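your task:
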Amino acid sequence: MSSPLPEAPRRRPWTRLLIGTGIAAGTAAALLAIAGLAVVRPDLWVVEHVVFDGTDRAGSAGLRHLADLRNGTTVWEVDAEAVARGVERHPWVHHATARFEWPDTVVVEVTEHVPVALLASGAMHYVDVEGTPFAPASTDDLDYPVLTGISPELAELQPEVPRKAVRSALALMDTLEARDVLDRSRISEVHFDAARGFSVQVTGGARILFDLEGFDAQAGRLERLVASGVDVSTPLYIDLVPETVAIVRPLDAPAPALDPAARPVPPAPEVSHGEG
């Protein structure tokens, strides 16, 4: 008969305490060694990589220059907020945030402007959805509606008018799209006139005059005209500024004193609701 195996000696509570204390002491010693090395040799803790996420138009070389993280910059010298502010100086960058990732990388998250139109005011500039001109337009990327009539002279005389006019022009195009009357991609130009309103040029088609406000009602009237057979893809002049009639005539025809082509706007269709 085999004799039973001896039981393994149990660790006393004070033994476990000594082991735990030894581990903690070892960890603390390692951290102190790292801290000491950082003090004695800070040159060993340099930023080796700068990563830009979310970029399309903005080049990494230009962003790296604006971030001002020079070769030899240590991790202790990285100011994330300053890096983000520097990157936001790039014309294509709308917003940026920066963070440090252990052990040697700075990551910059970038949100770029999205162009929705071109502003022709002196030089041609891209305009974002907020109505902000942000970068000179490139000759190989001009397939956007062009906003005209907002001259540098107007900006000097009335500084608040150009920004409001640009935003109103974008709001007009948004309204036409939302009502499914005219897609933005079919619009070649939106011309601003402080006295007459906005003139929308359909590519290869109609020139449509809108007042400075009340876009939804005017878009509704245009919608009813289209439903009645008016084709905006043909060269027509359509004036929607009058409240009760829409002036529709060939685009190259002179406007008579009393335009016989002025037609009443078709009324909105009535909708009856059955009971029960």
